[in-house]
Amino acid sequence: MKNTAFEVQFEGVGRTFAVPRNSRTSRAANTALGNAANAEPREVLSDITITVAPGELVAILGTSGCGKSTLLRIAAGLDTGYVGDVSIDGTPVFGIDARCAFAFQEPRLLPWRTMEKNVALGLPRGFDKVAGAQRVAELLALVGLSASAHLRPREVSGGMAQRASLARALARNPGVLLLDEPFGALDALTRIKMQDLLLEIHAAAPTTILLVTHDVDEALQLADRVVLLGRMPGQPGSTITELVTVPGNRPRDRGNAELAEIRAHLLEGLGIDRHVH
Amino acid sequence: MSTTTDSALAAPARSNGSAPSGSVRSARNTAPAVKTRNARNPRSSRTRISRTRGGRLLISSILPLAILLVWQIASTSGLVSVAQLPSPEMVYLAGVDLIQRGLLGPFIGISLQRVLIGFTIGAALGLVFGAIVGLAKVWEQFFGSTFGAIRAVPSLAWVPLLLLWLKIGEESKLTLIAIGAFFPVYTTVAAALRHVDRQLVEAGRAFGLSGVALFRTIQLPAVLPAVISGLRLALAQAWLFLVAAELLASSAGLGFLLLDSQNNGRTDRVILAIILLAIFGKTTDALLSLFEKWAVRRWA
Ligand SMILES: Nc1ncnc2c1ncn2[C@@H]1O[C@H](COP(=O)(O)OP(=O)(O)OP(=O)(O)O)[C@@H](O)[C@H]1O
Ligand SMILES: [Mg+2]
């Protein structure tokens, strides 16, 4: 395994979703979102500036709809309509970025492929076939899906699908790992197992990880730093309202007083802009 | 596939990953074993007759046999004149007669050939244009309304033009059939491609796929079932247009047999031609549906 980890830099990044007048599909999408005919351009992210060091694990917290997924999509090159600069390893992101691997908020597995073949989709292009099969088997074992390797997505539970999606992203052996609520559909026990797994993988082959989560405790357990996205007064879009460096080495003691204080602070931050949206 | 034995059926069906489809399939193949299986396994008492192979054959042959029976009674009881409705036997004899004259074989051959060639050309073009239009908005705007307008033209309206341009040769018939086969494929493929789950496409792109690789990995498998039902529709259309083409201008084929027999008052041959069209239409469709089953099992 190559030990790559890239720096990720956001410089004044903002994103406004425009409403093209003559596009049928986007109008339909907007109706679906609830803001019908008179929808206007909406600024979702404003002026996000942060540099994530190589190998750092940064958790992104924020209320639903504040733009967390959008931020990850921008980093991956999947969203190109942003303003500002994004660079990975010093070079600007241009188009889909092969240095990133994405575990989406939804599992997004191909329904006609088995779990095994779905995970194999994540392997880097031109990966040796035999070595690839072996790597897929390893990853399936890591996420506890060995017994389900030959099942189709519709035959597995939501949590199993989500673990397969995580394994698919890991298969890339990426320099930047973008995880959008990767443990959202898991029960408490599996969740802790997967969190430990992520930390193990991170310790063994340090990649840079951007981890979106709703869960403050998860952020405090896993991350080196925690970013809180929220709205500043007078600004329409979300920006970084808090940037906390989490003290102590992992695994961290949940009862730690300092952590409890940070936790309370972050929770308060999450509550503040609850009236928005 | 149907070689499943009783003992194999009794084996636990849920042993591995293929359990769900496996158990359904085994339930279908239980024709001779229904009784013993029911006795052994109370759950399978829900196996209906409609689920077994022999049962399905039985149910689906009731109506054709009934029609044959009514036909026989109606034609032999004097209820309808034999000139109006010849008996099944007379239709059969008409068939034998045509075979002996060496006409039926070539007629069937030429009709099948026209359908298959016309269908292949039309379906292939439909696949290509459907893919182009379904994948790129620009091409949808470019072709969409024009093709929509051409599609709105009733099939028979093409005949005079095709005859003027291509004369009465094979080309005019093949073109007509190809037009008929083109549109079902074109529309289903284009629509299916437009509705491929965008999130899956995005996931594919995020994992480095683009162009042909993206199409092969995500879009093609996603639309395959729709493509195949489009092909089945197109095949039905091809037979429809074949008869239209042969009725209007031909000297051989099942459509010609229909027209010629009508002119000579040979109701027996008309009915024979209709039955043959039904049989060949159904058989070719059944072949495609086998292919469809395979593709759905493989991809969906
Ligand atoms: N393609 C789009 N077109 C228009 N608006 C969009 C689009 N994508 C996202 N948005 C808007 O951007 C905002 C942020 O969306 P995003 O998915 O990034 O939220 P999130 O923070 O990930 O929320 P959640 O925690 O619920 O996943 C939402 O209000 C959404 O309506
Ligand atoms: Mg999200």
UniProtKB/TrEMBL annotation, chain A:
GO terms for molecular function: ATP binding; ATP hydrolysis activity. Pfam families: ABC_tran. It is an enzyme of class 3 (hydrolase). It comes from the Bacteria. Residues 8-256 form the ABC transporter domain. Keywords: ATP-binding, Hydrolase, Nucleotide-binding, Transport. InterPro entries: AAA+_ATPase (IPR003593), ABC_transporter-like_ATP-bd (IPR003439), ABC_transporter-like_CS (IPR017871), ABC_transporter_ATP-bind (IPR050166), P-loop_NTPase (IPR027417). The keyword NADP does not apply. The keyword Metal-binding does not apply. Its EC number is 3.6.3.-. This is Sulfonate transport system ATP-binding protein. It comes from Alpinimonas psychrophila.
From TrEMBL, chain B:
Its main location: membrane. Residues 37-49 have a biased composition (Basic residues). One of its GO terms (cellular component) is plasma membrane. Residues 15-29 have a biased composition (Polar residues). Residues 108-288 form the ABC transmembrane type-1 domain. GO terms for biological process: alkanesulfonate transmembrane transport; cellular response to sulfur starvation. Residues 1-49 are annotated as: Disordered. It is a multi-pass membrane protein. The chain crosses the membrane at residues 55-74, 115-136, 148-168, 174-194, 206-228, 234-258, 270-291. It is found in: Cell membrane. It comes from the Bacteria. Keywords: Cell membrane, Membrane, Transmembrane, Transmembrane helix, Transport. InterPro entries: MetI-like (IPR000515), MetI-like_sf (IPR035906). Belongs to the binding-protein-dependent transport system permease family. This is Sulfonate transport system permease protein.
